[in-house]
Structures are given as C-alpha cells and as structure tokens.
Design goal:
172 residues, Arc Repressor Mutant, subunit A, two-stranded antiparallel ribbon, 2 strands
Length: 172
C-alpha cells in the first residue's frame, strides 16, 4: 500500500466515512466521494481495514458478544431501579450503572432554593428514556431474527414472472 492509502485506512477507521477520510487524506472535496468509494473497493485496503478493526476489537475487548450482552442487559433493565419505595426518583448517583451509561436520553431537574435564593439542592422531575425498541431491533438483527428485515427477497420469483410473461405472449 502507498502511504496515502495507509493514511486513508487510518482516517476511515475514525468515523467509517470514506468521503471524509478521503478529504482528510488530501483529496478534493469535489472528488472525495468517488475517491473514497474507489479506495474502499481495493482488496488490499479492505484487508487493512478488516485487520485494523480486529486489532481494535481485541484492544478494547469489544466484540459482537460484548455488544449483544450489553444490548440484552439494557433491554431487561428495570425502570423501578430508579425509584425509591415511596415513588420518588432517586438521585442519579444511586442509579444502577446500566442506567447511568446510556439508557437515559435526558433528565430535567429542578433546583431547590431557600427563602434567600440560595441553592439547597435539586430533584429530578422528568426522565427521558432512550429507545428500547431500537435496542431490541439491534438484538434481533444480530441474532438473525428476520422480523426486522426491510425487504424480503424471494429467490426465483423474478425468473418465474419473466417465464410467465413470455408464456402469455406465446399463447396470444
């Protein structure tokens, strides 16, 4: 590989965007889309990207099994873990780790102030959860559940339709 191709591999691994990687390597923004696609089509570059991904996965210890376990843990996390026995929302510091690592998309809180306007504390008034359905969909795709496929391809139907069309022309 050339030094520029090696740089493309490194840049591509940053965001998996071939166009942006090509631009960062010095290709013109006008041609970067075409150059990125061309570079990705080269077997030597594909192999280098695959090898770098495997190496990165080994370094981070994040692989398909880790992702699936994480998604499964998130999918079964119990929202009740965020509440006290009296029904109040616990302080974030008391939430289970899984909830603090991405299951919550946002929190609205209200500050408590004394009569002189001094802050005395805060409490959470609203918790916006991240998308559970998306997590379940990702799990389904990972384990091969076909319910989430965008399009189902039936082998042989196109050929059958062509044969039927030819046969009807013959008969006419």
């Amino acid at each position: 590989m050339t030094p520029k191709q090696e740089q493309f591999v490194r840049e591509y691994l940053i965001d998996l965007n071939a166009t942006q990687a090509a631009i960062r390597c010095g290709y013109s923004a006008k041609t970067a889309n075409r150059e990125g696609a061309r570079l990705l089509s080269k077997a030597v570059i594909k192999a280098a990207i695959d090898a770098a991904r495997v190496e990165r996965s080994q370094e981070t210890k994040i692989d398909a099994a880790w992702v699936l376990k994480r998604l499964a843990d998130e999918a079964v996390a119990d929202i009740n873990d965020l509440y006290t026995d009296s029904g109040a929302i616990k302080p974030v510091s008391e939430w289970p780790l899984i909830w603090r690592q991405g299951l919550v998309a946002g929190i609205k809180h209200q500050e408590l102030r004394d009569g002189e306007g001094n802050r005395t504390g805060e409490f959470i008034v609203d918790v916006k959860l991240s998308d559970l359905i998306r997590r379940i969909e990702l799990i389904g795709k990972h384990v091969g559940v076909k319910a989430f496929e965008e399009q189902i391809s039936m082998t042989g139907l196109d050929a059958l339709a062509d044969r039927l069309a030819r046969a009807s022309k013959r008969d006419a």
